[in-house]
């Protein structure tokens, strides 16, 4: 109840509905928030939510940026998770978040691909409506951007930075290419500022290969475990190779099955390591530890649950309750039969609608060749999208031989927080002490990333870091 009163007083100011072609837009009366649906394809509706920053600084030489946040999963809700549990203005208890990225940018959240969160299709039995590939998901996102940006000159002044987490990295890369194409064709009016890939599932093979040796090096498995994981790894790759050869369009189902088996082997041989932070036990996870089925759940299914932890929400409440309760009431335009699921990965998996094991390295190269700034940042303790895995990406060999610089926080140069290596428009950050969820684990270092990627001015960040220091 307290939550509701807070919400009524401070959040719901008013609602205005405008009906454009196939878009529904609403927002707060003061214009600080706008949200809506775009019919990205017939019968496919994508939800977006834009927050204008109260911290905006007008500087013609450095226009205020917009960050489009792309959540992982695939199928986790950016509007729910990314917004309320990671970087938005309010946390899961609807209390102001000091570390909101609104301090640095306007924030655009989307529920993508369609079928995720508040985004929906009109006919759930029509198998042609969900996207089948990452590229199709990116085309839908491009359609959404056209609807939101074209015809709004004030939005077009801001460069758009696409920041992705986990599986969202693939969508980000695909979106970068698709948006560039639309911009070049004069169909999309926006400035693409850059792409940032946080612990991103860009090259599944490299990550999977890295698990055994990494866990062995940090004593989390022994030789027996390494051997067991190698056997399954070989199995996984044999199956994946076969499928790749047979079906150029990629039916990755068998490889995916082997992938889950490999996860199980790693779990069995490590006494259940946490795939999002190899320093932790899976059972110690605040949420996972409470359920018996924990060890049977795969890491991808655990993705959205992980963030939904007691750090952000009280134990009597959780994100789906919030999203289906006060937030749905606030937004007004969410159809009653569209429900937020805790994790929608299963939907995508069962329908084989996303090629989980496809690789996106060539597409990253393409973005770089087109002069787009690409930043990769990886948490040191992540297993699922491990740093050694990312370092194995093809084409990085020469890059990795360059020198790297240490980074510190808040003027305290007694503790190394990260390392940075840059070559032309490519930047790689090693974030020490962080697991998979870099934005969540050590926000302060995350801000540093944005500084060093020249998203924001350095002095401003230092200020914020001091303000946030804990
Ligand atoms: C957020 O900032 C306010 C004002 O400076 C401070 O009182 C509060 O303790 C901060 N909260 C957290 C969680 O850091
Ligand atoms: C919601 O209900 C409408 C009208 O009954 C129906 O057309 C639509 O398919 C339903 N949508 C979902 C996602 O169930
Ligand atoms: C353009 O977008 C901004 C930010 O959401 C909004 O405040 C403004 O009303 C929009 N302008 C038009 C003409 O829609
Ligand atoms: C990429 O970053 C550099 C600085 O590192 C900046 O000068 C350049 O404008 C950026 N490129 C784009 C397309 O934003
Ligand atoms: C692991 O496998 C290798 C051969 O692949 C073998 O030489 C070694 O003895 C095995 N180690 C253990 C601990 O089983
Ligand atoms: C993991 O351990 C469980 C329990 O011992 C066993 O049932 C299962 O078959 C093991 N999985 C693999 C892939 O080895």
Automatic annotation (TrEMBL):
GO terms for molecular function: serine-type carboxypeptidase activity. Residues 1-23 form the signal peptide. Keywords: Carboxypeptidase, Glycoprotein, Hydrolase, Membrane, Protease, Signal, Transmembrane, Transmembrane helix. It is an enzyme of class 3 (hydrolase). It holds the Pfam family Peptidase_S10. The chain crosses the membrane at residues 428-451. GO terms for biological process: proteolysis. Coiled coil: none annotated. SUPFAM superfamilies: alpha/beta-Hydrolases. Its EC number is 3.4.16.-. Belongs to the peptidase S10 family. This is Carboxypeptidase. The lineage of its organism: Eukaryota, Viridiplantae, Streptophyta, Embryophyta, Tracheophyta.
